Amino acid sequence: MCVRLRWVQKSNFMGPCLSETELISRFFNFNIPGQWPTQGIGDDCAIIQVGNRRLAVTTDTVASGTHFLPNVDPYTVGKKSLAVNLSDLAAAGADPRCFFLALSLPKSDSSWLEAFSRGLYECAKEFACPLIGGDTTKTAKIGHSQAPFSITITAIGEVERGLTRQGAQIGDDIWVSGTVGDAYLALMLRTGQWAGACDSYLAAAMDTPVPRVALGQFLSHFATACADISDGFLKDLGNILVRSNVGAEVYVDRLAVSPQLAQRTQKERRQAQLAGGDDYELVWTAPESARQRIIDYAQKSQENGQPLLLTRVGKVVSSGLKLLNNDGGEIQNTFYGFDHFAQEDV
Amino acid sequence: MCVRLRWVQKSNFMGPCLSETELISRFFNFNIPGQWPTQGIGDDCAIIQVGNRRLAVTTDTVASGTHFLPNVDPYTVGKKSLAVNLSDLAAAGADPRCFFLALSLPKSDSSWLEAFSRGLYECAKEFACPLIGGDTTKTAKIGHSQAPFSITITAIGEVERGLTRQGAQIGDDIWVSGTVGDAYLALMLRTGQWAGACDSYLAAAMDTPVPRVALGQFLSHFATACADISDGFLKDLGNILVRSNVGAEVYVDRLAVSPQLAQRTQKERRQAQLAGGDDYELVWTAPESARQRIIDYAQKSQENGQPLLLTRVGKVVSSGLKLLNNDGGEIQNTFYGFDHFAQEDV
Description:
The structure is a homodimer.
Chain A: H1 19-27, E1 38-39, E2 46-50, E3 53-63, H2 74-91, E4 95-105, H3 110-126, E5 131-138, E6 141-142, E7 145-146, E8 150-159, E9 173-177, H4 182-190, H5 200-207, H6 213-219, E10 225-228, H7 233-244, E11 247-251, H8 259-262, H9 266-275, E12 282-286, H10 291-303, E13 310-317, E14 321-324, E15 330-331
Parallel strand pairs in A: 4-5, 11-14
Antiparallel strand pairs in A: 1-2, 2-3, 3-8, 4-8, 6-7, 9-12, 9-13, 10-12, 11-13, 14-15
């Protein structure tokens, strides 16, 4: 029972060393035995065996400036801050049970809190996941300014088996849900880094992502490994490969693309899809024998009026990560996922 | 299963309205039914029934500037940030099982992280409470400065029965562990608000509080209500009284006092002991029939070389809160506990 936080070991094929990863392995790799059997450490969730039940637990911080643009609507903050945690539960195949909220605010501003609370409540209600504890504090003062908000949510769910990033088998298919890259496109447009307007579809992709809770529970019956792609498709798939000690071949042009992203240059599209992040779709591996079940699930979602794309994008192989175009030609991997401390010395 | 965070309802006898309390009741009093039976909401911990086990879960944020002086040793930050969460578990009578760490840092500074991690590890090891998940993020930028660190820990423990703030009975004794007011005295001395030097005893009281984990487990067999006094003795006792719908008579001069605090003026002593906060001792109520067990426990702690004062300071009555001096004369209650947003409009 070695302790490791949610980021994986330094990857051999992901390019330059990830310093957030090193931070974890150098400073928080405690080795303290616990009374509860634990797995999934280094994953979206830790999975712990508590008596006759198995829990998935995740904790995520979102902050103004880092995860949200400064002028963000507090309703969005409330809704998204819980959604990103439920997305981690989804990746473990968990059924959400409850959550805890640690809220740091510069001041207690009623109108901000009213909107935040409304967004939080909507997400909590949708997933029948009650708020059962928390803490509020004031943010630090810097000079005459108060630091902006920061929110840490810890969400607890229940799993039967529990999906982790470990378990992908050579020969497995690699699948991804939804369209990929829209949140990143929205960010680039809103910040003026790419030309164009952010329409309501893209705004929703960035502001109110839908955690794939039902999909995760469905996958938990047969998938061999799973993660959400919040840190970017390549980084999160990479995490599965490293922890499963396998490689992959990915047909990058098979990643489902929205009409908005399809209009961008190939370079922009690949940047958004492969390295963008802030998408809360799932990537998973599953044996070929599960293909029909997955296709049927996607079909059913359409019949239910909540269509969800499920796309087979590649194959698990013994080692390495090959990115291929539709002709089978190899693309150089110049894309990396998101790392909060990547630009710094540890 | 009404949802309420750790702060209690507005109290009738605690003086002016507590706006942090109002913040919670106005904005986070969701009413979403959950699948797990829950109690203890509004307490140090939420207590949840998971299959055949009962868990206590708490979350606390500590931040530079708010909970720590700006020049604090990162070793202290690591040790105390876990200790304050384990103190909440202690108040629930829980046995710590694991914790999650959400760390927001201005930059990844090795020497800071090394010392922080050492302090955190020491506390985790002492209580056999492994770190099994977390998140790291960069703090927000304000102008050219990066906001200082902020740490949220969620700790999970296991309880047999679980102590909450609800259950104090008329006629119960009121008890407090340890000396009270030392952390506040240390703060006043270090910040120059009171004259004098902060010696190593006081520094330790503020920097490396010992969560009363074993005591909490002992009390869980017979105490009727329990809390830690991290927000100040009067506020935390007040929380028990409100939630138990009872009152109290407290002999304030019976609160155990360190030699250092005993030398201060009566006014300073009372300020530190009644309203100070940042002490991680327990306050609890228990029937008269438990007196001898409690006295025996204190006696045993001395024999074991880890002496722990357990002091009977008052009595639960039907309503109101009377503060009495040793002659039985009433003292006006001009003291209030700590509230992060108390000086502001909600």
